[in-house]
Structures are given as C-alpha cells and as structure tokens.
Amino acid sequence: MVLDGRIYFIDIRQGITDFKMEDFFKKFLYTGVGLASLTAEKLQESIDDLVGKGKLSEKEGKKILNNFYDSTEAKKDEFESKLKEIADQMKDRFNFASLAEVDQLKARVAELEAKLEKMEGKNGADEPSEAE
C-alpha cells in the first residue's frame, strides 16, 4: 500500500509496517555480495584441488581466477548501474523528496518558526499581563 508517498506492507501478525527502500536495496546488494564471495571461495577451492591433482597448472588456475574476478567486477558495475536506474525510477514514480528538497523544507520551517516566535513575542509585549 502506498500512502503519503511511502510504501507500507500489511503484515497480519504485526499490522502495518513501514518499508524503507534503502534497507531493501542494501539487503539485496549484501545478498549479491555474499553470493559472489561464496562463489569465489568455491571456485578457488576447486582450482586448488585441480592444481593439486595435476589436472590444471598454477598458471591456468590463476588465469581462470583472474577472468572470474574481472567478469565479476564488470557485472558488479553493471548491477550497481541498473540498481541506481531502478532506484531513480522508483523515486520519480513515488515522488520522493530529495535530500536537497528536505533540507530546503527544514530551513524554511525553521525560518517560519523564528518569524512566528518573533510575532508572538511582539504581541505578548503589547498585551497587558493578567496580573495587572
């Protein structure tokens, strides 16, 4: 459910919970990083095993690992780019305020509060006190 530009999920057990897109993307990204790390470890183990059995030279093993790491790095950059594109589309679709817009609004609210306090101070000084 979308309400006031925010996404909410209704969980029957816990009621309505606020869903933060940033947390979702972080978890998604960390899952991908964990998977890549696990894959790299397993690949390293497999290559070490093949080198140990003499079925693959060390040079070939290093080449395979370097190709894997280069490919993984390229895919990571592609993934990050795609993720940013999706985040930008969601921001535009749900009309989220940017940090700059939020900062401008905070400054404007502070300015208006200061003016209001000033006005209340003037009105309070002109009015006779209740003790008189």
How do the strands and helices of this protein lay out in sequence?
Elements (H helix, E strand, L loop, with lengths): L1 E2 L2 E6 L3 E5 L1 H32 L5 H37 L4 H28 L6
Antiparallel strand pairs: 1-2, 2-3
Helix pairs in contact: 1-2
Quickly list its features.
3 helices, rod-shaped, single chain, mainly alpha, about 130 residues, 2 domains, disordered N terminus, three-stranded antiparallel beta sheet
Task: Provide a brief overview of the structure.
This protein has 132 residues and is mainly α.
Tell me the major beta sheet.
3 strands, antiparallel
Which oligomeric form is depicted? single chain
Number of separate domains:
2
Order of helices and strands: EEEHHH
Contiguous helical run count: 3
How helical, in percent, are the residues? over 70%
Tell me, briefly, the overall form: rod-shaped
Q: Which consecutive residue ranges, at least 5 long each, have pLDDT under 50?
A: 1-5, 8-18
For the secondary structure, the number of strands is 3
Mean pLDDT: 76
As a whole number of angstroms, the C-alpha radius of gyration is 29 Å
Structural class computed from helices and strand pairing: mainly alpha
> In which order are the strands of the major sheet placed?
1-2-3
Beta-strand fraction estimate: 5-15%
Please tell me about this protein's structure.
With 132 residues, this protein is mainly alpha-helical. The chain has three helices and three strands. The chain has a three-stranded antiparallel beta sheet. Helix 1 runs antiparallel to helix 2. The N terminus is likely disordered.
